[in-house]
UniProtKB/TrEMBL annotation:
Domain of life: Bacteria
Alphabetized InterPro entries for the sequence: Leu-bd, Peripla_BP_I
A Pfam family the protein falls into: Peripla_BP_6
Presence of the UniProt keyword Signal in the record: yes
Listed name of the protein: ABC transporter substrate-binding protein
Family: Belongs to the leucine-binding protein family.
Organism: Rhizobium leguminosarum
Leucine-binding protein domain ranges (all copies): 25-349
Signal peptide (UniProt feature, chain positions): 1-22
């Protein structure tokens, strides 16, 4: 959990430092500073601010309200502050209004949150300078499909989902991919979420002969299904999606349950030193902290490269590879991450970790 008192003090110090001098690359950090999204905004500001301070660049903090038609004002503030590149951007509403003006000002944007496929299509069509350091819409499904086709293709597979829009769409994408590869699930169903027990469901899975089940649902429902399968002596390999990254309660998750999810970046070896440094500042490296730090690192390095080469900063974001605390990052010609950030993870003890061995 983020230490709110510590992070507030840290951000105050960053603000004072930004006002005291201007140096290096001027980077705008756009994030909510108040309201219901303030905690996420604080994560973005803390991560990006830490990196900007460490690199000797200049931070310009811009409040993001995430309201309709608020983007133009954000763009004006960035232009008036003479920023060279901007990072953050929690909401698509901000980007929709800001990008046309930022294109005119040659200010590229790196969003750490917005996943809209349509927005990126519009950006590419209109030449808006948007780069996405977040997963694209559909990346989760693509990784789930990759894992299932690689590890489960020879086994009887069940697909179940909780009836929510996300659960249904994710599971439907998997089903379509299986059928395109000549595979038919032995069981499909929509279960009722939020139940204290799912014994009838796991018995139906057993009768269908399923040994592998993908579940488009939330963490607690999956924990209940795993518990009841074990109680009924039903051997099921269970895979969920990114919704598994949630509080491990009220039903704890059983060891061995797997998820295709974004990793806890603070647990990665390449993140250890940076995570420790953030903690000394009272900032827990959770949520958007490390991704925002990585975005600011990329912005700073691209800005320095652009100045050295006498080229537009946007060109330096393309065709370059950046080593960051969340891994190696490069952007495609479509301004997306070149590698899918979702990973196959397994619950062990108190966290999700890379599987110890290939799926059997």
């Amino acid at each position: 959990m983020i230490n709110l008192r510590g992070i507030a003090a840290f951000l105050a110090l960053l603000g004072a430092a930004a006002e005291s001098h201007a140096a290096g690359v001027t980077i705008g950090v756009v994030a909510p500073q108040n309201g219901p999204l303030a905690l996420l905004g604080a994560q973005i500001a803390a991560g990006a601010g830490f990196e900007i301070q460490q690199s000797g660049n200049t931070l310009v903090a811009i409040n993001e309200t995430c309201e309709e038609n608020s983007g133009a004002a954000v763009a004006d503030a960035l232009v008036n502050a003479k920023v060279q590149v901007a990072v953050g951007f929690l909401c698509s509403e901000t980007l929709e209004g800001a990008l046309p003006k930022l294109k005119d000002a040659n200010i590229p944007v790196i969003t750490v949150s917005v996943r809209s496929r349509i927005l990126m299509e519009d950006a590419l069509k209109n030449g808006w300078p948007l780069f996405r350091a977040a997963p694209a819409d559909g990346a989760e499904a693509a990784k789930v499909i990759e894992v299932i086709l690689k590890d489960w293709a020879a086994d009887p597979i069940a697909l179940i989902e909780d009836g929510t829009i996300h659960g249904r769409e994710l599971t439907e994408a998997v089903r379509n991919a299986l059928e395109q590869n000549g595979l038919k699930p032995v069981f499909t169903d929509t279960y009722r979420p939020g139940q204290e027990q799912q014994i009838a469901l796991v018995r139906r899975l057993k009768r269908a002969g399923a040994t592998r089940v993908f579940i488009g649902g939330d963490r607690n429902d999956i924990a209940v299904i795993a518990r009841d399968a074990k109680a009924e002596y039903i051997q099921l390999s269970i895979l969920g999606g990114d919704a598994m990254r949630a509080a491990n309660q009220p039903q704890p998750l059983a060891d061995g349950v797997r998820a295709v999810a974004l990793p806890e970046y603070a647990l990665l070896p390449e993140s250890a030193a940076t995570a420790d440094a953030l903690r000394t500042k009272g900032v827990e490296p959770e949520g958007y902290v490390l991704p925002s730090l990585a975005a600011a690192l990329i912005a700073g390095q691209a800005g320095q490269a652009a100045a050295a080469a006498g080229k537009p900063l946007q060109e330096m974001l393309l065709g370059a590879t950046f080593q960051t605390p969340v891994g190696t990052i490069a952007f495609t010609g479509a301004h997306e991450l070149s590698q899918n950030p979702y990973r196959l993870l397994e619950w062990r003890g108190n966290g999700f970790f890379p599987p110890a061995a290939p799926t059997q």
